[in-house]
TrEMBL record:
One of its GO terms (molecular function) is ATP binding. GO terms for biological process: tRNA threonylcarbamoyladenosine modification. SUPFAM superfamilies: P-loop containing nucleoside triphosphate hydrolases. Keywords: ATP-binding, Cytoplasm, Magnesium, Metal-binding, Nucleotide-binding, tRNA processing. InterPro entries: P-loop_NTPase, T6A_TsaE. Belongs to the TsaE family. One of its GO terms (cellular component) is cytoplasm. The lineage of its organism: unclassified sequences, metagenomes, ecological metagenomes. Gene3D superfamilies: P-loop containing nucleotide triphosphate hydrolases (3.40.50.300). This is tRNA threonylcarbamoyladenosine biosynthesis protein TsaE. It is found in: Cytoplasm.
Amino acid sequence: MISLSVNSLVETHAVASALAQLSRSGDVIVLAGEMGAGKTAFAQGFGQALGITEPITSPTFTLVHTYDSGRLVLHHADLYRLDRLGEVTDLGLHEMVEESGVMLVEWGDMAAEILGAHLEVCISRMPDQDDQRKIVLTANGQTWTPRWERVLSAFAPWQVEM
């Protein structure tokens, strides 16, 4: 686990960009946090770093957006409106990732046990600080273990002691 502190939207995008540079096809990244914490903003920074040219918007009502103009295909899902794990399974997220690309899943913490190995990015707003966020990255499963030293190095500018 690594804890980061960012002070602006620009820094949030920089953290997302650093993560995008470390990502590879088959990765699942869960974006957790309260409403308005910055999950979609994080996804926008991530997608821009992949070279995606389309505007990245929240898939709250469509459930999944797929962008294929970047270095990797980006599948961006939002599980906020889903009530049951069966509905998550019906989306076919595993199949999308197995075919190609990386999957970002907003509100994915509610379905973490069925998503398999993933990296959780938990974003929290800091009290009385409009743009300041705490971002905690936690690897679940072995997918990120071989890359963890690179993760620590990439996020050193924002790392805080826990």
